């Protein structure tokens, strides 16, 4: 997508270490031949589910950034969060930037439906290079779970900072706590399934980073990386999405989709017993499956780091 891939998923559910390894507005790590038009409804539904978390983050940013003229959503996906920025900053022009044309089409359509079309634009191309096409520097730039898909994250931060106006703010969403969906003991299989899935995800993520062309190993100290990129770190805060059981149909669908994608992506990293348990969880006919059980929940935390370009 926009980030030489891909978001993505979600590492994170719509990219961070999200449940589906898709970005909050996201894309996936396995992005070589993704049909973005087909993926778009899932990515949109996921971002809509995470809207309470994003609203918390934007309310915090609104206290840090006074009346930005231009807001750029870097790796916007289908534009759910881009439109939340348009809502949060009614005096701002918002640009959704991504590498996937079908997702930007969804973003434009959403902005039109919500009445933001007159101050909403899109920018297609590989990021961060495509940002050179901006008409003027941004006062606020948002990058959600996209930087970890780029081979040189520190260089990417410096590039993003170069498209900020003096005194402008860069806000990056990376890391936090991975989504949890199930109790430790779910009554089938060996207790602790999600912890072992998470360990397999970490291995897969490390492999993804290592396989990126010209990948640069980096300690994931985001404030230090922002400082090294010539920016002044100004804040760090985490935001919680807490959807307790019993879940809505939309939230249950998200859990099912996330576990299904995990099965496809990191199934080789699980033993036969855990795979069998995961298959039971995904079986709509199984009484112990996610379709029927009432103890399924969604609990996740995302961390946002802010930094300012010196005036």
From TrEMBL:
Species this protein is from: Streptomyces violaceorubidus
Key words of the record: Methyltransferase, Transferase
Keyword Coiled coil annotated: no
EC number(s) given by UniProt: 2.1.-.-
Name the UniProt record assigns to this protein: Class I SAM-dependent methyltransferase
Record-linked InterPro entries: Methyltransf_12, SAM-dependent_MTases_sf
Region (Disordered): 1-30
Annotated GO MF terms: methyltransferase activity
Example of a GO biological process term: methylation
Pfam families for this protein: Methyltransf_12
């Amino acid at each position: 997508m926009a980030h030489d891939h891909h978001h993505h998923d979600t590492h994170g559910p719509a990219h961070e270490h999200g449940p589906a390894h898709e970005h909050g507005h996201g894309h996936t790590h396995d992005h070589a031949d993704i049909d973005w038009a087909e993926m778009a409804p899932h990515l949109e539904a996921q971002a809509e589910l995470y809207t309470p978390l994003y609203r918390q983050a934007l309310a915090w940013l609104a206290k840090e950034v006074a009346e930005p003229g231009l807001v750029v959503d870097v790796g916007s996906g289908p534009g759910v969060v881009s439109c939340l920025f348009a809502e949060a900053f009614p005096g701002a022009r918002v640009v959704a930037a991504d590498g996937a044309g079908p997702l930007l089409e969804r973003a434009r359509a959403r902005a039109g439906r919500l009445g933001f079309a007159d101050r909403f634009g899109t920018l297609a191309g590989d990021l961060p290079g495509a940002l050179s096409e901006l008409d003027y520097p941004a006062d606020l730039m948002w990058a959600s779970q996209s930087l970890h898909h780029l081979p040189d994250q520190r260089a990417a931060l410096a590039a993003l900072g170069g498209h900020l106006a003096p005194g402008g703010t860069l806000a990056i969403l990376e890391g936090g706590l991975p989504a949890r969906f199930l109790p430790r003991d779910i009554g089938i299989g060996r207790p602790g399934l999600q912890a072992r899935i998470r360990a397999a995800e970490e291995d897969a993520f490390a492999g993804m980073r290592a396989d990126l062309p010209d990948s640069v190993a980096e300690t994931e100290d985001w404030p230090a990386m922002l400082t090294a990129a010539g920016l002044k770190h100004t804040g760090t805060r985490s935001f919680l999405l807490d959807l307790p059981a019993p879940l809505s149909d939309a939230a249950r669908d998200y859990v099912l989709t996330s576990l299904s994608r995990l099965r496809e992506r990191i199934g080789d990293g699980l033993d036969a017993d855990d795979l069998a348990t995961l298959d039971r969880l995904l079986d709509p006919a199984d009484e112990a499956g996610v379709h029927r059980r009432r103890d399924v929940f969604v609990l996740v935390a995302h961390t946002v780091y802010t930094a300012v370009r010196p005036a």
